[in-house]
Design goal:
Elements: H1 5-26, H2 32-38, E1 56-59, E2 63-67, H3 68-80, E3 90-93, H4 104-114, H5 116-129, E4 132-134, H6 141-148, E5 155-158, E6 172-175, H7 178-186, E7 190-193, E8 196-203, H8 212-223, E9 231-236, H9 238-241, H10 245-253, E10 262-265, H11 269-277, H12 281-289, H13 298-302, H14 304-307, E11 310-315, E12 322-324, E13 332-334, H15 335-345, E14 351-357, H16 364-379, E15 387-391, H17 395-403, H18 406-412, E16 416-417, E17 440-444, E18 460-464, H19 467-476, E19 488-489, E20 495-496, E21 518-519, E22 553-561, H20 568-571, H21 584-587, E23 606-608, E24 613-615, H22 617-626, E25 631-635, H23 647-655, E26 657-662, H24 667-675, E27 679-683, E28 697-701, E29 712-717, E30 723-729, H25 734-742, H26 745-752
Parallel strand pairs: 2-3, 2-5, 3-4, 5-6, 8-9, 8-11, 9-10, 14-15, 14-17, 15-16, 17-18, 22-25, 25-26, 26-27
Antiparallel strand pairs: 1-7, 4-21, 12-13, 19-20, 22-28, 23-24, 27-30, 28-29, 29-30
Helix pairs in contact: 1-12, 3-5, 3-7, 8-10, 11-12, 16-18, 16-19, 25-26
Bound molecules: FE3-S4 cluster (F3S).
Length: about 750
């Protein structure tokens, strides 16, 4: 599990030279985010200014982290690159597939049985290609990364939206899709639009019932779920230094809820303390030696409004505890206003379950503060009214808090400890009775509270708060309780009040663990066989896609002309299909089933030109494939918006679609198509969309001289014997044209490593 100190020292050595160069080019002081971004340019030392919100930049991240649901396809693709080892340090974390039902031990056992083939695959592929593997029960990706791999000034991508958690330790950490992870592990650059910057100036100090979580709950209320899109949020000011490293991580984690690219805090004494407590004193020493590079320049702090695109200020001394929700994390209520909101909106006042933990809030500090309240409940003879669960973020935290007696304390109030995994946070919660769909309230210390997310019941009103507030409300058993002002009646009929929570930032006796759940890669990878059963319906090894045949594409059939919105969800649906994420053939049976057919306005009903019958999109496409006929998909505006899900590009490629022709593309999807060796084309004149007819055969001409900036030509052969021709545009650069010719970007790498 050891972090790579030499790699980190290398980053620091480069950082000094590159930050100086960037400062010169920009001609102004730099923020922390800019320092880290400029020191991770793929091109090396910066030679040009990259404009915020405009320029697309190639980066060279230091690390990759993947969770088990997204790692499957990322690693199957990585194997296509033919590299003997991953190009950058990478880890896999088995946390998403464990269902919470009765408690940690039994739930973990069930998950290991049920997901054995997935875990065996991930373990063997990690072993063979040099990835660190954290098995089921080891913990949640972001907590494990924070404890082991995050480092100030680093840059990481992770296949999970809460990857920014590592910003608590001063790292630029960004959530991506599996294709990006596979590219970086294969040795390719990673592209991002230069983010804009929001500065959040924190003054004052947290105290009493207020916790780090309340900072981000308040910020979410200010910025809303879209306010951070395209931005890095940088927190600074005296107030920032009063927050522990894990508290900072909580704030950065939930930056995902405002849509931020990532969030970050500067390196400070609290970061150093956490690094030292988690046995990474060498990193703290290295960071101390360049600490002026691990924070924004002083001029920025002196005049933030000049340098940030947007500035927000918050006095922590005046910040109240918050409860956000229901159904959206940006509906922010200061606790003093929450009870009225509950009553006025008719939300169920009785609290059914309080859930603490998750990747957002399961540090030693969080657990110890929540436990201080649980202990008060015991001491003050209070009967705890709601169900109460604890999800530790890692085995390191779980073992340590058990040793220090906190889990016993929770047991005294009826708390159930769940596995060190995502569990209810990702809907992996077999909540008894949820299927009845009854109206009820829960409150969690997690990050998301969308309808149905936790238990599948659309009538569950889910609220988000700090672990302290979750615990206090669970003790009271109602949402309208304010522990700062309200009394409770104990089992002896006496009125009592809860005192403010107290806790410890780090364990006095240090962290401890017997088996952290880590598997280092094999010392002799040649002996390792990647385990994929040929009969598996969840996993399938990939075959490289065929190279371009070297000629124009003629006689393609129109597969579907999609009308209106066609997101990656329409192209590759989630829900029950998630199970097949590692099996391209099986998941391809969802290809474009959500797209609306222009000709009949129906979904998943298109004409098969070979039979003249209407059938499901995947079935029709498979029929063309069986007859060796290529096809073309036509789309409307912003085709492929939504997530970066690579399956939306891989499925058409796998089933034999040759080109996607649209009015416009969502950029990430367009790039994903290019990487998979597909043609992504746009109408030069959007009115030409109307020329496409249901029975068309289509030629794409000009491929033999395919070049950057040169349009291609589409010829439509209509069923009445007439033809029409029009130009189509593309955005392929020279390298991307090579991807097309080779059959995929990974085929190029494969060639370059001689596989
Ligand atoms: Fe898992 Fe929930 Fe975090 S799903 S990674 S615990 S946001």
């Amino acid at each position: 599990m050891a972090f790579d100190l030499e790699m980190i020292k290398g980053v620091y050595a480069r950082m000094q030279e590159r930050v100086e160069a960037a400062r010169k080019i920009e001609g102004r002081p730099l923020t922390l985010a800019e320092k880290i971004l400029y020191s991770h340019l793929w091109e090396g030392t910066p030679t040009q200014v990259y404009e915020r919100g405009k320029s697309y930049v190639d980066f060279a991240p230091d690390r990759v982290a993947m969770q088990d649901a997204t790692a499957q396809m990322a690693l199957l693709q990585f194997m296509q690159a033919g590299r003997p080892q991953v190009a950058v340090p990478s880890t896999v974390h088995c946390d998403h597939l464990i269902q919470a039902e009765v408690g940690a031990t039994q739930d973990l056992k069930n998950a290991v049985d049920k997901n054995k083939e997935v875990y065996d695959f991930l373990s063997s592929v990690s072993n063979k290609y040099g990835l660190g593997f954290w098995r089921a029960g080891a913990g949640i990706i972001h907590q494990v990364v924070l404890e082991n791999y995050a480092f100030p000034g680093g840059m990481m991508i992770g296949t999970d939206s809460h990857t920014p958690n590592a910003g608590g330790l001063g790292m630029i950490a960004i959530g991506v899709g599996g294709a990006d992870a596979s590219d970086v592990m294969s040795g390719l650059a990673w592209e991002l639009k230069m983010p804009r910057l929001i500065g959040v100036k924190l003054t004052g100090k947290l105290s009493g019932w207020t916790a780090a979580k309340d900072v981000i709950l308040w910020v979410a209320g200010q910025l809303t779920v879209k306010g951070g899109t395209g931005y890095v949020v940088e927190y600074f000011g005296d107030g920032a230094e009063s927050i522990s490293a894990t508290g900072k991580a909580t704030i950065c984690n939930m930056g995902a809820e405002i849509g931020a690219t990532t969030s970050i805090f500067a390196y400070d004494a609290r970061s150093a303390a956490y690094l030292r407590a988690t046995e990474r004193a060498e990193i703290a020493d290295a960071a101390d030696s360049i600490k002026e590079y691990l924070r924004s320049d002083d001029e920025i702090y002196a005049d933030p409004a000049t340098y940030f695109d947007q500035l927000i200020e918050l006095d922590l001394s005046t910040l109240e505890p918050h409860v956000n929700g229901p159904f959206t994390p940006d509906l922010a209520w200061p606790l003093s206003k929450f009870a009225t909101a509950v009553r006025e909106n008719g939300w169920p006042e009785v609290l059914s379950v309080g859930l603490i933990g998750s990747c957002t809030n399961s540090s030693y500090e969080d657990v110890s503060r929540a436990a201080s309240l649980a202990q008060q409940a015991v001491d003050k003879k209070l009967t705890v009214s709601s169900e109460y669960t604890i999800t530790p973020g890692s085995e390191l935290v779980r073992y340590t808090v058990e040793r220090d007696g906190y889990l016993d304390t929770f047991a005294h109030i009826g708390g159930v400890v769940l596995a060190n995994a995502c569990g209810p946070c990702i809907g992996q919660w077999a909540r008894h009775g949820a299927e009845k769909g009854e109206k009820n309230s829960i409150i969690t210390s997690f990050n998301r509270n969308f309808s149905k997310r936790a238990d599948g019941n659309p009538n569950t009103h889910s609220f988000v708060a700090s672990p302290e507030i979750v615990t206090a409300l669970a003790i009271a058993g109602r949402l309208t309780f304010d522990p700062r002002t309200d009394k409770l009646i104990n089992s002896e009929g006496v009125e009592v009040m809860l005192d403010e929570p107290s806790g410890l930032e780090q364990p006095v006796r240090g962290y401890a663990v017997e088996d952290a759940g880590y598997q280092a890669p094999a010392s002799d990878p040649s002996q390792v066989q990647v385990l994929v059963s040929p009969t598996s319906d969840r996993l399938q090894l990939l075959e490289p896609f065929a190279a371009w045949e070297g000629t124009d594409l003629k006689g393609l059939k129109l597969l579907i002309k999609a009308k209106g919105k066609c997101t990656t969800d329409h192209i590759s649906m989630a829900g029950p299909w998630l199970k097949y994420r590692g099996h391209l053939d099986n998941i391809s049976n969802n290809m474009l089933i959500g797209a609306v057919n222009y000709y009949n306005e129906k979904t998943n009903t298109i004409k098969n030109q070979l039979t003249n019958q209407y059938a499901e999109v995947p079935a029709v496409q498979r029929d063309y494939k069986a007859h060796g006929i290529g096809t073309i998909v036509v789309g409307d505006e912003n085709y492929g918006e939504g997530s970066s899900r690579e399956h939306a590009a891989m499925e058409p490629r796998f089933l034999g679609v040759r080109a996607i022709l649209t009015k416009s593309f969502a950029r990430i999807h367009e790039t994903n198509l290019k990487k998979q060796g597909m043609l992504a084309l746009t109408f030069a004149y959007t009115a030409d969309y109307d020329k496409i007819q249901e029975d068309d055969s289509i030629d794409i001409l000009g491929l033999e001289t395919f070049a950057e900036g040169q349009p291609l030509t589409i010829v439509l052969h209509h069923i009445d014997g007439t033809n029409e021709e029009f130009p189509v545009n593309h955005t392929y650069n020279e390298q991307q044209i090579e991807w097309f010719k080779a059959g995929s970007a990974l085929n190029i790498i494969r060639r370059s490593v001689g596989a």
